[in-house]
Amino acid sequence: MHISRSPEEIAANRSRYEEHQKKGLEFAPKALPSPSALPASVIAAAAIVHQETIPGGWYWSTVLRRGEAIRVDQQEGTSTVALVAWNAADASERLNLVDTAKVQWTTALGKGRVIFSDMGRVMFSMIEDSSGTHDCLMGGSNAASNAAKYPGIKTRNTRDNLVLLASKLGLDRRDIPGVLNLFAPVRLDGDGSFHWRSKKSNSGDYVEMRAEMDMIVGLSNCPHPLDPNPVYAPSPVSVTRFRAPGPAPDDLPRTATAEAVRGFENNAMMLA
Fold first, then answer.
1. How confident is the model at residue 21, as a pLDDT?
2. What does the alpha-carbon distance between residue 129 and residue 33 come to, in Å, rounded to a whole number?
3. What pLDDT band is residue 29 in, cutting at 50, 70 and 90?
4. Is residue 15 over pLDDT 60?
5. Residue pair 43/242 in contact by the 8 Å Cβ criterion
């Protein structure tokens, strides 16, 4: 049902939104840190829990414990990696990118930001990130988008990969949340259309995300729907699960916004 609103109502709603946004942004830091340095630092062998290489076109999942972190590394070329996550204790709680962008007033997710669940709790803190090019809006590839982009050849896609991954975890299609596309330089034009900024995607980029609750994490290594390369050739990616250093009292992801502070308060209540 369509609800029509008067110009006065629209203006009043807009005014309330802008006031709320202003208060949120006043709490935020004036600037987030610069991208993490390249090449990535070496993770101490004693801290490594597991390492995996995900071939181009394939998927993988792991259990990630609170206090551990996951590094996804483009060591062999550029490749978009779609990430999903569920609370390990209750898979009905899952990654929520709409809330992640909404409560932090940005779709630019990088070092210093957090990733929320649909229960208002923090799932990940982004503790290192060399790229700053992660897409939380478009979603991953599917059979139809691949067929249109790579006609006449059989290819793997993110949607089907995640369906297979979910089924192996005892989950269903409807349990699959929206995906966070790592290393996908997608931005919005002024008219609201999406475009790909190729010069912002670099071989060797990496991201490290610290787990703030016990989770099941799934990854799919397939080209993004907007990737301009006409050839289906995703590069392998390296994934390292490791024990992360504990957060300092002024840890940026925990203090950057009022919403992040409340998210961690929600985590504390769950853990209690």
1. 63
2. 10
3. low
4. yes
5. yes
Q: Phi/psi class of residue 146: alpha, beta or left (left: φ > 0; alpha: ψ in -120 to 50)?
A: alpha
pLDDT digits (tens, 9 = 90+) for 203-222: 789 999 999 999 999 999 99
DSSP-based three-state secondary structure for 158: helix
d(C-alpha 12, C-alpha 126), whole Å: 36
Cα 174 from Cα 214, distance rounded (Å): 21
- Residues ≥6 apart with Cβ < 8 Å to 54: 60, 81, 219, 221, 236, 237, 239
Residue whose C-alpha is closest to residue 222's, from 171, 175, 162: 162
What is the DSSP-derived secondary structure letter of residue 184? -
Distance between CA atoms of 219 and 72, rounded to whole angstroms?
10
Domain extents for the chain? 52-271
Tokens of 191: 């008219």
CA distance to 14, 177, 188, 205, 270, per residue, from 62 (Å) = 43, 16, 32, 21, 22
| H/E segment holding residue 270 | helix 258-271
Q: How far apart are CA 128 and CA 209, in angstroms?
A: 7
SS3 12: helix
Amino acid at 230: P
What is the pTM assigned to this prediction? 0.87
Structure tokens at 10: 């629209």
Closest to 231 in 3D by CA, of 143, 159, 156, 150: 150
Placement of tokens 């590839």 in the chain: 141
pLDDT band, very low/low/confident/very high, at 30 (cuts 50, 70, 90): very low
Higher pLDDT, 20 or 132: 132
